[in-house]
């Protein structure tokens, strides 16, 4: 438990399922009031909010497209209206789809960049404006990926978006550090969520992913949520502009294990 989080307010984008859902649950367990954003899965988001309220927490489910200014404004408005302000903004929403780059349409490229990178910019901008207006020490957490560092053929739009998130996060961390705003990214490796449920349902594909992970297990959303809670809390007060890899060692070039190379 991070006691300093109690009573504070968080927005978590893409919170109806997967990693975002685990983060919303964890922050509510830390006694934060949570705006759970969903894009299309209203039922699951509202059920999560109800469950958290029944467990003594405070949460509200709000529909919004993070790639639009109106959507982001609706989330900030909800935080202010329902919970009286904002302390932590988690840009988690993201998407991916496999397409060889030479066959990728402009529409496919723009869709992924819009959600994964423009959505992060819009969310961070809204949060920063709120923090500056209220002269508040704020906290922004951006969901990146090991693919902010590792190239990923047939997912060029995704890798480009996450590489963009890395330098965007570092830049705004520097830009607003003196005003008390901390900005960090989390880079998950392979985490068992709906985004890759199909892949992990196939034992062959699951094994080929496991082969890339020194710890030899697929991560759980709760393991990423634990990193988000720490970054949100004052326990990480001296940490800004960094990416925390939560990847079971995936980014350690496992092909070099046992002295190869
Ligand atoms: P997921 O598909 O389970 O969840 C993604 C969430 O984003 C969903 O709730 C979806 O509705 C939401 N979303 C998509 N487009 C949106 C939009 N326009 N507006 C609002 N919400 C939108 O996937 P996940 O695995 O939980 O992914 C969460 C984040 O973690 C993503 O940014 C993803 O890139 C990142 N990530 C995941 C993994 C992994 O292995 N699961 C690895 C690295 C990074």
Structure commentary:
The structure is a single chain. The chain has 261 residues and is of the alpha/beta class. The chain contains eight helices and seven strands; from the N terminus they run E-H-E-H-E-H-E-H-E-H-E-H-H-H-E. The chain has a seven-stranded parallel β-sheet, with helices on both faces. The termini are far apart. Nicotinamide-adenine-dinucleotide binds next to helix 1. Nicotinamide-adenine-dinucleotide binds at residues 13-14, 16-20, 37, 39, 41, 65-67, 92-95, 115, 143, 145, 188, 190-191, 193-196.
Could you give the topology of this structure?
Elements: E1 9-12, H1 18-29, E2 33-38, H2 42-54, E3 58-63, H3 69-83, E4 88-91, H4 106-133, E5 139-143, H5 156-176, E6 182-188, H6 197-201, H7 203-210, H8 221-232, E7 243-246
Parallel strand pairs: 1-2, 1-4, 2-3, 4-5, 5-6, 6-7
Bound molecules: nicotinamide-adenine-dinucleotide (NAD).
Nicotinamide-adenine-dinucleotide is lined by residues 13-14, 16-20, 37, 39, 41, 65-67, 92-95, 115, 143, 145, 188, 190-191, 193-196.
Give me the CATH superfamily: NAD(P)-binding Rossmann-like Domain
Shape: globular
Task: Give the quaternary arrangement of the chains.
Answer: single chain
Bound ligands: nicotinamide-adenine-dinucleotide
Instruction: Please tell me the CATH architecture by its name.
Output: 3-Layer(aba) Sandwich
Global Rg: 18 Å
- Helix-strand pattern: EHEHEHEHEHEHHHE
Question: Widest sheet: strand order?
Answer: 3-2-1-4-5-6-7
């Amino acid at each position: 438990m991070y006691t300093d989080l109690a009573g504070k307010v968080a927005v978590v984008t893409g919170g109806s399922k997967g990693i975002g859902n685990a983060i919303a649950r964890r922050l509510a367990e830390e006694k934060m009031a949570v705006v759970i954003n969903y894009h299309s899965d209203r039922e699951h988001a509202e059920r999560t909010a109800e469950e958290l309220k029944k467990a003594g927490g405070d949460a509200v489910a709000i529909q919004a497209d993070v790639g639009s200014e109106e959507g982001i404004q609706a989330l900030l408005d909800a935080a202010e209206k329902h919970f009286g302000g904002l302390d932590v903004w988690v840009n988690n929403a993201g998407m991916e789809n496999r397409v060889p780059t030479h066959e990728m349409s402009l529409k496919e490229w723009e869709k992924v960049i819009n959600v994964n990178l423009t959505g992060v910019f819009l969310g961070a901008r809204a949060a920063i404006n709120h923090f500056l207006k209220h002269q508040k020490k704020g906290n922004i957490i951006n969901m990146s990926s090991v693919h902010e560092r590792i190239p990923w053929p047939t997912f060029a739009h995704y890798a480009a978006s996450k590489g963009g998130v890395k330098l965007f996060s570092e830049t705004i961390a520097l830009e607003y550090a003196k005003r008390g705003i901390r900005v960090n990214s989390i880079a998950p490796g392979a985490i068992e969520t709906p985004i890759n449920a199909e892949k992990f349902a196939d034992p062959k594909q699951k094994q080929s992913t496991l082969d890339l992970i020194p710890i030899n297990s697929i991560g759980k959303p709760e393991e990423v949520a634990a990193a988000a809670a720490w970054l949100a809390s004052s326990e990480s007060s001296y940490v800004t502009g960094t990416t925390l890899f939560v990847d079971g060692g995936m980014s350690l070039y496992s092909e070099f294990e046992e002295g190869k190379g």
